[in-house]
Amino acid sequence: MLCVNDTPLFDLSDNATRLFLAALEAFQRTYSPVHGFICIVICTFSIGTNLIHILVLTRPNMRCSAVNCVLTMVAICDMGTMGSYFIYICHFVLFKDTTCVLIYSYLWMRYLLCHMVLSITLHTTSLWLIVAMAFIRQMTLRSAILNSNWQKPQMAWRVCILIYFCVFILCIPTFLVYDVTEVGDWHPAPQCSHGFPPNYTAKYYTFHLSPSAMANGCRFFKWNLWMSGIIFKVVPCILLLYFSSSLMLTLHQTTKSVN
């Protein structure tokens, strides 16, 4: 996708670029047949292990810890991500070559848009929850009071709800960037015609950038892209690096003073 007056992403006149793209296409042809099955295994394993985490962390003697509450929320986010991705893989990857089923119907494309936004929301929430957990650990170590507010589950639940709400609000523009648009007519393959009325025709759809996202040189699209990259990725990674380094330094100083 190119916006008005944008430079091309790849210089196709460059021989090295063409070789690189050809290598990627060759890898895609080799890996694509097994991609769906690998993802099914990963999703199933992830849902099962996160369910075990939730069952363990929500036991009465475990849920009194603020850190365990945050870990429970992280596991719920990961289960939601993997559950949505499982449905996506089954329909859009494993059944993509099925000629008897309309893969890209309007409702399925709406689901795909919701899946895309939901996966971004849950993945970003998980990342910020991990940052919050590192912050809670840091504040707990700095607090001289036993059973301070930072150690209480009530504080953790408030932090989790605040993160959920903020990330959800920030993900709304991503939902508004894309529109589901009609592409053409779909006809069932001849070997499947017995399952459809005579001369059956249905519409199939795809994604396009919305007119508002394309306006003014794709200003809204680019703003959302930069906002998502900075707030959803860069900032939490920097904060996590800072809190983790600070936590290790505090533990090192504590161990050194004890010895």
Shape: globular
Q: Considering DSSP H and I runs of 4 or more, what fraction of the residues is helical?
A: over 70%
Number of domains: 1
Q: What is the CATH topology?
A: Rhopdopsin 7-helix transmembrane proteins
**The CATH class:** Mainly Alpha
Strand order of the largest sheet: 1-2
Order of helices and strands: HHHHEEH
**Mean model confidence by pLDDT:** 86
Number of separate strands: 2
Ends: how far apart?
61 Å
- Largest sheet report: 2 strands, antiparallel
In CATH, what is the homologous superfamily? Rhodopsin 7-helix transmembrane proteins
Evaluate the radius of gyration. Answer: 24 Å
pLDDT under 50 segments (min length 5)?
none
The proportion of residues in beta strands is: 5-15%
Number of helices: 5
Structural class: mainly alpha
What is the correct CATH architecture? Up-down Bundle
Short key terms for the protein model shown above:
Rhopdopsin 7-helix transmembrane proteins, 5 helices, 259 residues, two-stranded antiparallel sheet, 70% helix, mainly alpha, 2 strands
